[in-house]
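question for whoever is on the cluster today: can someone run the full assembly for these? two chains, 1090 residues total. i dont have access anymore since they changed the login thing
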Amino acid sequence: MRTVCAAAQASLLKSIQQNVATKQQSAVEVTQAYLQQLKSVEGQVHSFLTVNEERALAQAAAVDAAIARGEAAGPLAGVPIAIKDSICTAGLRTTAGSRVLDSYLPPFDATAVARLKAAGAVLIGKTNLDEFCMGSSTENSAYQVTRNPWDTARVPGGSSGGSAAAVAARQCAAALGSDTGGSIRQPAHFCGVVGLKPSYGRISRFGLIAYGSSLDCIGPLTHSVEDAARLLNVMAGPDSSDATCSKEAVPDFTAQLQPAGALNDKCLAGLRVGLISQTIGEGVAPGVMGAVNGALQHLQQLGAEVEEVSLPTFDLGLPAYYVLALSEASSNLSRYDGVRYGQRASDDAAARDLRHMYANTRGAGLGPEVKRRILMGSYALSAGYYDAYYKRAQQVRTLVQQELQAALQQYDVLLCPTAPTPAYKIGEKSSDPLAMYKGDLMTININLAGLPAVTVPCGFTEEAGVQLPVGVQFVGRMFEEASLLRVAHVYEQTAGVAGSAQPQVVAGREQLVAA
Amino acid sequence: MKASALRQGQCVVGQLFTAAHRARVQPDGRLLRASRATSQLAASHTPAAELVAPTRRRICQAAAAAAAAPAAAAAAADTSVAQEYEAVIGIETHVQLLTRTKAFCSCPNQYGDEPNTNICPVCMGHPGSLPMLNQEAVNLAIRAGIALNANIARRSKFDRKQYFYADLPKGYQISQYDVPVCSAGFLEVDTPEGVKRFGITRAHLEEDAGKNVHGGADSLSGSSHTLVDFNRAGVPLLEIVSEPDMRSARDAAAYGAELRRICRFLGISDGNMAEGSMRCDVNVSVRPKGQEQFGMKVEVKNMNSFSNMQKAIEFEIERQVSLLQAGRGAEVVQETRLWDEGRQETSSMRTKEGLADYRYFPEPDLPDLEITEQQIEQVKASMAELPVAKRERYLSLGLPKADVLILADELATADFFDAAMAAGAPAKAAANWIMGDIMAACKERKMGMDGLAITPGALAEMITLIEGGTISGKIAKDVLPRLLDGEGNAGVKAFVEKEGLVQISDESAVEAMVDAVLAANPNQLAQYCSGKTKLAGFFTGQVMKESAGRVNPGLMNKILMKKLAAAAAAAAEAA
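^ ran it for u. tokens below:
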């Protein structure tokens, strides 16, 4: 059999780590290079809310010093990573994109962040997002609108839009996002990067500012599947600070990832792939469908058996998701009351009592989309409506979960587009919340079921003369990220899409790491 | 004068403070001063103007109205009132659990520390923080469930109870809504009318809130700001809800006292009502006797002792009955009333206009609470003796019921009594000493029996020395204060020997002392011999005095009487 060796996407994280570990390039040099790139494109992309320059350099220097002392280099030694601003970083401003947390300094690191740091990663800064992760375009940030590096007139997706844009624009080697209904995968699709939402409970939520607690997941946004696996290796595993974090054993997620040269042309022989029928019909942009079909054909060429699988409950997920996520959100956001931390409405005459202090603080501190969701969630939980909304939505969730699990008995992975369209123009949907919510159709069911899913670049579509990336979504069995990532990796290494083009803003500046 | 003014002032502050939702009276300068240092963290500018003033107005109006009604009832007070109407009482008790750490974080569960020192990101509700359930709290809930003869749910869950208040860090309280950890139990209480069984509807786990302290003035009404102390936020509570099975204030007080005893005996809670680690909310309604349907229910709060609880319920029953009798039944409305200890009356705090909507939903941050058979067995195996079992055991020792109720009332007393018996003291003698001199000393020193230095072993030894004739009962009574301070802990016998307190029981020694007294008092002896036999008491006293009380009274008496008789006979013969 012949080996396929397309323009394979090498592991950037591995290169950096090896360079730093062998002192070919110091962590400080790597960090400086990324900081320079960060600053040079930030005026176009607006992906960062806080740049952690001084401390990043100090962290990098500490990594170099440890290596100089002969200590073993961590698995992420010297890797500059950006963190979505909904994830707590000790002493480093964390706003969740909201005015109500404008100057909030968390007293602790999220477990995921602490594990990255312990592995030698360098925190380069905090990225923009939709306020409290509520949105799909990053336009709901209280601070700035992040631009898509492929076309700065377009949105980067959301809510982890800042992280996806920062990775695409080479402002960091990798980034953390969070995914409640698609917030990692959809921006990965919009920005042409890899986005992994692990199984619910695979990575501790401790330190992730809660939106929908039963759905929220932290995950990586990277240049390659292998990079995502490397980050997952570091972050996954039980945590004594999160009761919902799984005690499931953590394998080496890179173990099944073979280098491109070792893959033969039938390396997916026997793999059963289910294409979710409900995601390929009307309403999916032809350019998106074309790229996804290309991916399907490629998988078939590698020996996979691809079939359509119909999930009749699939369309029920969207309303159920919005009831559950918003109910939980309405409760999770009650704590932003101005009493203990964060912004409090000024002590003027209007704030003459507790009720007014709450109203003024929350009125000024929370944005319109957040208020809309708090209102809807509070309504769904109100006496007399609970059974009709929350309880019913939980029942639907169970059905969706059962159906997806049943399909995954039949198929090794499920496949579908990540979103119906490529990146749209800034302002195009921001006045129509319902249209925005519908864009989550292809990702939210995966959160309802708690399953792992990864979006991988699968092609491009031309919109108004601009090349926009498209990502295909692979869905795996619960806690079987290892085999999910293997399939995604094989596809990525052989399809020749990843790395085949660069976004506008990085043209000519691809090489940040010594080869 | 000054003291009573102060007390009254405290009551006002306390009541208004409670009016702002939570009953924790502590008008305490230390707290306020300390809070200022942490005000950046936990100050909130507040309700002073709007929340407080109207509340106070309501209380005053209601108090005036309420005061009139019972006065009329008291005037017409006769037993017919009690015969026509029947009270229906149910109690909700919040019990702070005696865990080392809080319910969902590892902060110390400790009362009385400097404000905002026992706090962390979790109990302060910081963004991104998550609760981790304290299994110790679950075990204490199971223990309470077993003691209350309740069903222990093998699978239950936590829910969020949502409302906004400055002392509630997350904007919701983690509680249990529809699947409590314990349900359908009962408590048996020994009352003068016999043993009564009161149903327990449920007991569920939840977290406590912080504490608001209003500042800027001596009383809340003029306060300019409110400080919040979050040390209590997240402390584990067990809320125990009774069935409406009680029919009198005495029933209710007896239920509360037995519940408190169970909590204390089993180490579930320290049950300290004054510090708020046990808080009772009482639902009171009245109905004509024979009527099936309940009357309108009124909630009464803010009682810091069971005697206050009893008085508050008695007041409330009378108030409601007199309104019904006066044809003003419509004025009995569903409301929350506070007991005002200073005025000895209840007054309206807030009227319940429809039920508050707490928007309960399952807590997504905590998995279902699973309790295994093994866990229940382990809790059972580690359980101390229940108060009822202790009482039965004491009765079986032949002690009178009155003694048993006293000895088994407080754990420290019962433990002392048991230890004294284990050290060899006979039950009745130990009981008498404990219930007599020792309890009196405790009362005087304002401490429990566990606060005394004396060991139960020392008491047992002292009793042995009395019964063996080594010391007299009188000597024992005299030296007990020193023994209570622990002076005899190294050995009571050595102590009384060293102090020269050992009883003189040597016949010849006593005889010599008697002879000396008779010889020293010839006049009295002569009078005795001439018929004034009442003087025998004089001689007894003299001998006692000479021996510094150490002479064996029985022996001395025998010898003295023999000598006196001989002297009298000799005198008669001589005459």
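summary bc i know u wont read the tokens: The radius of gyration of chain B is 31 Å. Residues 48-75 of chain B form the longest helix (28 residues).
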